[in-house]
UniProtKB/TrEMBL annotation:
It comes from Stachybotrys elegans. InterPro entries: 3-OH-isobutyrate_DH-rel_CS (IPR002204), 6-PGluconate_DH-like_C_sf (IPR008927), 6PGD_dom2 (IPR013328), 6PGDH_NADP-bd (IPR006115), HIBADH (IPR011548), HIBADH-like_NADP-bd (IPR029154), HIBADH-related (IPR015815), NAD(P)-bd_dom_sf (IPR036291). One of its GO terms (biological process) is L-valine catabolic process. The lineage of its organism: Eukaryota, Fungi, Dikarya, Ascomycota, Pezizomycotina. SUPFAM superfamilies: 6-phosphogluconate dehydrogenase C-terminal domain-like (SSF48179), NAD(P)-binding Rossmann-fold domains (SSF51735). This is 3-hydroxyisobutyrate dehydrogenase. Its EC number is 1.1.1.31. Residues 204-332 form the 3-hydroxyisobutyrate dehydrogenase-like NAD-binding domain. GO terms for cellular component: mitochondrion. It comes from the Eukaryota. The active site is at K210.
Length: 337
């Protein structure tokens, strides 16, 4: 895996190159479609539009009309940025676009959206479709094939990490599955919404990397909650225990940044009744997709089913439901002061 480069340097270096590669004439600038304006997509589209030029166009679409009109108002209130169009459908958002982003919840949504886009009336164009949804690699590969079979350009996967905070601040990390040349072409565009674009390999590889990471996170999160609870039952002070873990071999993101015990990390969701953060529902979704993809690849996963059961049981509790996934500490009966 290769970090392609820092945002500002590459933007300056590659933007003219990118424009040349998409534009059919020197004067014509780019047209973007953006489909899926939920928690992530709304903020990403806002950042994208604000950093483009008034000669560019962003055509936005979501099945939720409120998301569209709210974003339109926000985009139009800016003094600069690309022109904004409200599309009437996913097809409408794509028909003139050179680059189409999709940020959708589940594999089925991505499949349905591409069925609606890839109709016979879609003008033939060498588009780049960038799917930032977290879905399974095999569905992603099927959709990529349908795009190339239809002669409509290239479909790549670019799932992201950084959450809503990163989407809002424009600091996301994208994990890119594409050929080298396509990855280099789309990188400056991704860096309008994020800080890093990691090229993981051919199409589907971005999703494989994302799901492997989130599987590890799912397990680390439970193990951290168990270790903190265990140490505290033995009489250890949680601050001191976390201090030891975070300079020792047990150190991980849940122990260091998202510690499940209130007061250990000031900014962690544990300090606000586990509200905000990475919802337990999203963790379950990513774990489900990782288990599915592992089965397809014949990879043995000893902890996956147990981790799934822990999140499933946690979510059944009224005081855990809808909270940040570190709430498993509460499910374990951890002490809260
Ligand atoms: P979300 O549910 O908030 O947003 C999804 C949006 O897609 C909604 O606005 C919905 O109306 C829209 N949509 C659904 N079907 C559609 C269709 N047919 N046409 C047009 N729009 C449609 O989800 P989110 O939190 O923005 O996440 C999007 C993706 O990013 C998911 O795959 C998620 O796993 C992934 N992700 C989320 C986070 C996070 O912290 N929220 C972090 C990393 C990755």
């Amino acid at each position: 895996m290769r970090v392609l480069a820092s945002a500002s340097r590459l933007r300056a270096l590659l933007l003219p190159l990118q424009r040349r590669s998409f534009a059919s004439t020197a004067s014509r600038l780019e047209s973007y479609g953006f489909i899926g304006l939920g928690q992530m997509g709304y903020q990403m589209a806002r950042n994208l539009q604000s950093k483009l030029t008034p000669n560019d166009t962003v055509s936005i679409f979501d099945v939720n009309p409120q998301a569209m009109s709210g974003l339109e108002t926000e985009m139009k209130s800016q003094s600069s940025g690309a022109r904004v169009e409200l599309a009437a459908s996913v097809f409408d958002a794509s028909k003139d676009a050179d680059v189409v982003f999709t940020v959708l919840p589940e594999p089925q949504h991505v499949q349905d959206v591409f069925k609606s886009i890839l109709t016979d009336s879609l003008p033939k164009k060498n588009r780049v479709f960038i799917d930032c949804s977290t879905i399974d690699p095999s569905t992603s590969r099927k959709v990529a094939k349908s795009v190339s079979d239809a002669g409509q350009g290239t479909f790549i996967d670019a799932p992201m990490s950084g959450g809503v905070v990163g989407a809002t601040a424009g600091t996301l990390t994208f994990m890119v599955g594409a050929t080298e040349d396509v990855a280099a072409r789309i990188e400056p565009t991704l860096l309008l919404m994020g800080r890093k674009a990691l090229h993981c390999g051919d199409q589907g590889a971005g999703l494989s990397a994302k799901l492997a990471n989130n599987y590890l996170l799912a397990v680390n999160n439970i193990a951290t909650a168990e270790a903190m609870n265990l140490g505290m039952k033995w009489g250890l002070d949680p601050q001191k225990l976390a201090g030891v873990l975070n300079v020792s071999t047990g150190k991980c993101w849940p122990s260091e940044v998202n510690n499940p015990v209130k007061g250990v990390v000031e900014t962690a969701p544990a300090g606000r009744d586990y509200r905000g953060g990475f919802g337990i529902g999203l963790m379950k979704k990513d774990l489900r997709l990782a288990i599915l993809a592992a089965k397809e690849a014949g990879a043995r996963m000893e902890l996956a089913d147990k981790a799934w059961e822990v999140y499933e049981e946690t979510e059944k509790l009224e005081n855990c439901k809808g909270r940040d996934f570190s709430v498993v500490y509460r499910y374990l009966g951890g002490k809260e002061t």
